[in-house]
Write a structure and sequence with these properties.
4 strands, Translation Initiation Factor IF3, 2 helices, 4-stranded mixed sheet, alpha+beta
Length: about 100
């Protein structure tokens, strides 16, 4: 399935099917959360959180694709990501866009 951040796919005619979405809430285990807390004292990249967010984006994207496929979509346009902290060390990632079907196949 094609995922794009723009609202059009070339000159293709598209039928809008609705909003496709996927989300997940992820956290790191206590040991990594504790070590990241210590890392904030000296500065630097928090790699365990980077890994968590990368995994969360992949899961949310897969869920959005499945939602779009269930609508019969060929693609999702205007794809966006939103994140929010839901608890200390845990974040929700939501991926959403407009599911579309090609009219000029």
């Amino acid at each position: 399935m094609l995922l794009v951040t723009k609202d059009q796919i070339g000159d293709r005619k598209l039928e809008e099917l609705g909003i496709a979405k996927g989300s997940t809430v992820q956290s790191v285990h206590f040991g990594k959360d504790f070590m990241s807390g210590l890392k904030t004292l000296v500065g630097g990249e928090l790699t365990s959180y980077n890994e968590m967010m990368t995994d969360a984006r992949a899961i949310a994207t897969q869920r959005m694709e499945a939602d779009a496929a269930a609508m019969g979509a060929d693609a999702v346009v205007c794809v966006r990501y939103v994140s929010a902290e839901v608890a200390q060390g845990a974040a929700e990632i939501m991926c959403y866009g407009t599911a579309v079907r090609y009219l000029d196949q």
